[in-house]
Amino acid sequence: MNVQIHPKGIWHSIALTLLCGYASFLIGCASLPNKTVTQLDQRQVEYVATHHGQPIIVFESGIAGTIDEWSDVFPTISKEYSALTYNRPGHGKSVTTQSPRDGDHIIDELRLLLRQQGYTPPYILVGHSMGGFYMQYFARRYPEEVQALVLVDSAHPKQVEGNGSIEHYPLVFRLMFDWLASPTTKEEYLGMFSTGRKMLTLPTVTGKPVIILNAAKALNDHSPLANDWNAMRWDLPKLYPGSQQIWVDSNHDIPHEQPQAVIDAIQAAVAASTPAGSSSNK
Fold first, then answer.
1. ∠ CA 151-280-57 to the nearest 5 degrees?
2. 59-103, pLDDT tens digit by residue?
3. Which residues contact 26 (CB under 8 A, 6 or more apart)?
4. How far apart are CA 52 and CA 72, in angstroms?
5. Which residues contact 108 (CB under 8 A, 6 or more apart)?
6. Whole-structure pTM over 0.85, yes or no?
């Protein structure tokens, strides 16, 4: 199979994420300030949080991603709204855990952190790439806890099936994944198959704003795998009737390449999900 790898395409974005996690000091990945750690269920969790009342914006990072994935978005959002971003176990300074790295355990760990920090639902969930995958599962499993959903070039529930499975990835990416991805990242990837299947057995999100940002520049990539990813981008809104899809002039790494698009989507989700006549407690 002849797979083309575009230097500014999705492989560039994911490779950069892996490299940032491996050696951020070498390549200058932006760092989010005001990080702190807490003990949660007898393990250390790294996070950044602000408290301004409702609404509450919750961020979930992509594969191998950390808090720093939101360094160009979180500072603006957190000045106006309550907001939390964190590192899943095994990322950043969050210590690993022996629990399985599937969607059920990951979103329940997030819910526990939110409760510990004094946040009460509903939440506006924002997820990038694999983080969007987890936020979709959160919204389907606990719909009563969700106010709105913002998906930033999110993985599809069937992202790792068929042509999307890792054996179809370019050799250079598979080698980089083997060399640089942590055991936790590999476990999270493997957990996507069962989580995605379970996700699609649950009712979709209804009666709440769902805003889907997708990377328009990725449509310029053409290979069996790139075509599969782009088909997933077109299909995702079909899973959420009434959702709004916005094509962003960006590659996969929208939070860094076009952070204002993410900020605008979050603010639109707040406006669309806040009852008329009420306002956030700032």
1. 25
2. 999 988 899 999 999 999 999 999 999 999 999 999 998 889 999
3. 19
4. 20
5. none
6. yes
